[in-house]
Please model this.
Amino acid sequence: MIASFYCFESSLKPPFGRIMRRVGCGVLAAVCLASTLAQANDQISVGTVNGKDIWLDDVLRAAERLPEEFQQTPLENYYSQLVADIIDAQLAATAARNDAYDKKPEIVAAMQLAANRVLAESWLAEKVRGEITETAIQNAYDKFIADTASREQVTASHILVETEDEAKAVIAALQDGGDFAALAKEKSTGPSGPNGGVLGTFGRGQMVPAFETAAFTLAVGSFSDTPVQTQFGWHVIKVDGKDIAPAPDFEAMRAQLANNLSTQTLGRLLEELRASQDIQLRSFADVRKDAMDATQ
Model:
């Protein structure tokens, strides 16, 4: 029904978000089918309205614009609804033209904006797809494998206290030969305290920045000689081990790599477009002032 058509549209992300769903890692059945049809250069009718065909290509394009949760399910689950929405939209648009809605200035402006979005999405999607080749994906995987720093892992323990002075006292006790696990059980206010402060193994991005920096900087077997402050309190960190996490195999990473390449390529294309144009923007405060003045 037309109501559901507008519900779908209102729930969509901004247009370039839709582009990323179309050219990123998610290879949906609808998109694959659309690609096959394009190669075959055939048009398949799914029905007619007043003798005018509704094309399968149009249904598939509508499917590509649905929220991600729909795209992850088989097309047949929502195929009938998509066709119904297209019919309702066509009928309502015809009625609007009969009432000269397409002549209203605000409608003309909205239609132009919609047309620009369709053109932009189509052009950008094709440009991005053209660069996400098997060679590009393989090169991205090779770079990931070579970048062992991104896969570095630390096995660490910590003692968490409320004040810097308490942390300094813990460090002094450790420097005097104190046992880290015993001090953690006695002094630490963190949930790992009863377990000797053991945090286990973690990679980059899993801890808050200050804690991560300190932990990855320390040598194996050493502890921080100055307290480390985070929003949780003051930490004394001990590194028990370091290693490199094994890299996933190529096929396991293919989707993620393709998605990353899509994001990077789209960003570069948009930056290149902007760099060649003279764009002048007013501040939001100035725009808001003009808008408020206009209502007075």
About this structure: The domain at 150-244 is CATH 3.10.50.40 (Chitinase A; domain 3). Residues 59 and 86 are 8 Å apart (CA to CA). The chain has two domains: 2-132, 150-244. Residues 1-41 have pLDDT under 50 and may be disordered.
